[in-house]
Give the backbone structure.
Amino acid sequence: MFIIIWRKIMKTDLRIIKTQESLRNALLILLKTKPLESINIAELCRCAKINRGTFYLHYQNVHGVFESYFEEIIDDLRKSYEEPYHQTDFNIQNLKSDMIIIFHHVKRYEGFYQIIFDEANPVKYYYKLFHAIRKMMKEMTMNSIDYLPDEKMEYFVSYQTNAIMGILVEWHSKQFATSPDELNEYLYSFSNSLNWFPNKQGDAN
């Protein structure tokens, strides 16, 4: 009896996952041709090949699909960004290039990032990602660096965030052709040559 119930639950979970994936993929397709505000539920359902009743079982509106997907991606990005901190026990000066995995994350969600960095799309998508990354970086940086004055810390975090965003924009301009491992090496060398992490006296070049 337990096995039968478990199989039913698994079957239901797989259906939910499949429906959400269909809606997210459909949303990415539509976002290539129009802004989020111009996409309605009917056309999203047609593109995803599901009915409106099924849609309303999962979301209230199209914006909810985007927000849900965005949160999932940011959560995965956060885990990817935090990994080197955990591996070095927050002694990030001991970072090695093979500890960096954020570019593997971006490659995994390449379709989403193509939308974010497409110049034809609203800049608010870019800034939504920027603020999410900045918040994440600030939390992690303050755990590893606690000796910078508050104002200087804010500028330092913005500097870090823009550096990452700049690399992603350049990667997008090259259709994400550069390998994630090669970008890991670039970021590692940049962080060393530009004194990414200031020393205990707070000397940041």
